[in-house]
# Entry
Amino acid sequence: MNETILEIEGLTKVYSGGVKALDGVDLTIRKGEIFALLGPNGAGKTTLIGAVCGLVRPTGGSITAFGHDLAHNWRAARARIGLVPQELSTDMFETVERAVSYSRGLFGHPPDKARIEEILKSLSLYEKRSSQIRELSGGMKRRVLIAKALAHEPELLFLDEPTAGVDVELRKGMWEQIAALRERGTTIILTTHYIEEAELMADRVGIIRAGRILMVDNKDAMMQRMGTTEAVITLSEPLPQLPETITQFPVTLSEDGRELCYRGGDGSGSGSEEVAVLTKALIAAGIDYRGIDVHDSSLEDIFVDLLSAEEAA
# Structure
């Protein structure tokens, strides 16, 4: 079992006015993994990150990082944690190289020109090292934030919406950079609105809403357990009702009798297999169809369904 490097227990944060941003959060992060924290705006993602990084003082609960209780020895743990914030927050008139070097010094590390050069090259910033940050594009500015967070060589890196406002091409480039960081042994906690990012990169996924963790699981296990297959079969002729041989399948007939809707199976592919059996049963029953559209659940489908169920509860 992978080593636990971050343990959060019963974490709460209540702001003045009674707004509860975190409501008894329990979370364990393992060394070397990419963990994606998903949730709607206002769910508590940024507050949770702020609590671990020393930017938000919790109301209750405990945070242990690298064996240190953050309530009593936060400096020792914080030196091993990096943060790429959601908002651009840096001196816009500083050059790229000086800004990154300064961040390294903030954590007590001696100057290391070779290491700074390596970071800038890995993020395609080296050619811009002498440019003022204000002169850079939005995507490049976000890369500077990542470079600043990496300057003191953290073992645990928080990425709070790292690709917000970044175009598709730059976003894919950042995915590659995040994967490379994990290859070097960095543990990454990622919050994102682009659920495809979590589906592509994360080992485990947590879903948070209204300050509470609704679910934490291995991504593949979550998709297999909660995933489904949906199929819409367009019939050649409308049906007044379904024959008994078809009602044994998880299907519904549209009001006009022209479409048969299937929803079943799981993320292992069993639904697609059952759809194939269904189409054979239709043919055996003398029911012709002229089109079929099959869709397996994505992580986004599961995320939306889970939040909808929570709201309805």
User: Anything to note?
Assistant: DSSP finds eleven helices and 14 strands in the chain.
